[in-house]
């Protein structure tokens, strides 16, 4: 169906561990894919709101002065259409939008507890804007709670960022089990898009050990591109910019652009 082909592909960044590079990947992969000419939306589904602030979203409404800007909580619980909360961010020819979040989002886990079809709220919310984007990247919180379940139910695929450290693989089987559960119960399209090694330090022997273990586990799904540890990637969010607009020559910006190309090459094949 022609209509269907125009719909965005939804990719969730998931790993219940914090600090593995989900948000950094959501911001920088999204910005790089947008820089390559695709229409991209980042959905910030983490109450910490780091993807929102890292993309320069301002909590105060631009028109209303002191008035609070709309965000994902309003969409999920007050019926505000996604379009009303989405803002265009970064200087990327209007190709990059964010559906922002702030700490209020934490209430969703409790407030939707008794709701029927509570795993489909995000999918239903995004449905009306799916023709307006090529890719939607959902930044998940560091848990396997309802927000992550909503992201996985709305998604076509998952990118799993892994930090190359001793405990990198710990908890991974739980994540894979959750992905399988969502696939079996709510969303049969769901697949693992790729596993991404972040904060890679080639001088560290452990890094190579983790890389080879992951490669064995996820045959063919480990991205060839690895993201090095690069201070620019951690500085850029405080300027509200993706790395490619903060220091486009930095190794962080360059490797996320390379990842975006690898990601887009996979789309053609599948
Ligand atoms: P998560 O979203 O999984 O919790 P983040 O993307 O927020 O992880 O990353 C955790 C911290 O590590 C942040 O302070 C971030 O700026 C930093 N960071 C992430 N990736 C890199 C990298 N490749 N090099 C240096 N710092 C990084
Ligand atoms: Mg995060």
UniProtKB/TrEMBL annotation:
Residues 8-192 form the AAA domain. Transmembrane segments: none annotated. InterPro entries: AAA_dom, DNA_Partitioning_ATPase, P-loop_NTPase. Coiled coil: none annotated. This is Cobyrinic acid ac-diamide synthase. It comes from Desulfurivibrio alkaliphilus (strain DSM 19089 / UNIQEM U267 / AHT2).
